[in-house]
């Protein structure tokens, strides 16, 4: 059966300083086969407005792919009845990408450094490390089931 | 996303990754390489010349395949990384784990 394409809802809203911001919302099913489609959809909306193309082509795509994979695999445990909410707030100064799953959260404070010599040969443990290296700021909610990645415009 | 495999006359199995190597297709690549390893192939080259980005699960599959191939007395090498992919390997220090060539042609000449 053909899957229906993902759709984003985009709304304009007034920012804190009175400027006009845009907000994009998207719900992604708990299926890793939909990750690339979701990443491309968000990237297309951001590409035109970012002067530094590499930030979207590389940093955004990899970071969002990681966050969605974590949310689907570990947050929602691939449960069909759960989804991942993506909210992107685009302002003059930055882009905030929030990815929220329906799981119980995890402790993001105690993750080993995958670049230590003993950890380099390990097949896992690089997802959050990459996100932190590729975006300007990372925040979590208290429950640990929502990550907010911030890319500042240069 | 597709994986195209061809056997080089020198005995190296070259696998071209056409598209991204991410969470949704990493198992397909893993199985393709494991099947070839089972069938007797020992020299592998993965060519990323047509790949935009790789995520951590894609990197993880490369790491675990590398170990499995080494355990069987073989070798897994990489080629064709664009600037973004090179950055990814440098950030994760995986450039210290793999032999990486600029192009598949260079990799095959040195294999």
Describe what this molecule looks like in 3D.
The complex is a heterodimer of chains A (154) and B (111). Chain A is of the alpha+beta class and 154 residues long. Chain A has 3 helices and 6 strands. The longest helix of chain A has 23 residues. The mean pLDDT of chain A is 90. In chain B, helix 1 packs parallel to helix 2. Chain B has a 5-stranded mixed sheet with strand order 1-2-3-4-5. In chain B, 41% of the residues lie in helices and 23% in strands. Chain B has 4 helices and 5 strands. With 111 residues, chain B is of the alpha/beta class. The mean pLDDT of chain B is 95. The chains are: A alpha+beta (154), B alpha/beta (111). At the A-B interface, helix 2 and helix 3 of A face helix 2 and helix 3 of B.
Assembly state (oligomeric): heterodimer
Distance between the termini of chain A: 44 Å
Strand order of the largest sheet of chain B: 1-2-3-4-5
Q: β content of chain A, as a range?
A: 25-35%
Compute the number of strand runs of chain A.
6
Domain count of chain A, please report it.
Answer: 1
Under the CATH scheme, which class of chain A? Alpha Beta
Strand percentage of chain B lies at: 15-25%
Silhouette of chain A = globular
Low-confidence stretches of chain B: none
Helix content of chain B: 40-55%
Q: What distinguishing features does this structure have?
A:
heterodimer; A: 154 residues; alpha+beta; Heat Shock Protein 90; six-stranded antiparallel beta sheet; 6 strands; 28% strand; globular; B: 111 residues; alpha/beta; Transcription Regulator spoIIAA; five-stranded mixed beta sheet; 4 helices; 5 strands
């Amino acid at each position: 059966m053909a899957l229906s394409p993902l759709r984003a809802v985009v709304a304009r809203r007034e920012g804190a300083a009175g400027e006009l911001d845009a907000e994009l919302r998207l719900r992604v099913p708990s299926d890793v086969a939909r990750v690339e489609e979701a990443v491309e959809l968000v990237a297309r909306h951001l590409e035109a407005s970012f002067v530094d193309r590499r930030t979207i082509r590389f940093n955004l795509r990899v970071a969002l792919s990681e966050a969605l994979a974590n949310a689907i695999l570990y947050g929602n445990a691939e449960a069909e009845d759960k989804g991942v909410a993506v909210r992107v707030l685009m302002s003059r100064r930055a882009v905030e990408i929030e990815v929220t799953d329906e799981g119980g959260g995890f402790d993001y404070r105690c993750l080993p450094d995958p670049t230590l010599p003993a950890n380099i040969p390990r097949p896992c443990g690089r997802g959050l490390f990459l996100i932190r290296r590729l975006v300007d700021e990372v925040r979590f909610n208290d429950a640990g089931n929502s990550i907010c990645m911030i890319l500042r415009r240069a | 996303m597709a994986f195209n495999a061809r056997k080089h006359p020198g005995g190296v199995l070259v696998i071209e990754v056409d598209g991204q190597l991410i969470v949704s297709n990493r198992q397909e690549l893993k199985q393709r390489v494991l099947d070839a390893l089972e069938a007797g192939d020992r020299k592998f080259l993965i060519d990323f010349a047509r790949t935009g980005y790789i995520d951590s699960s894609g990197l993880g599959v490369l790491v675990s395949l590398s170990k499995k191939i080494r355990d069987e007395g073989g070798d897994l090498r990489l080629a064709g990384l664009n600037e973004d992919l090179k950055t990814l390997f440098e950030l994760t220090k995986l450039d210290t784990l793999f032999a990486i060539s600029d192009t598949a042609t260079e990799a095959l000449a040195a294999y």
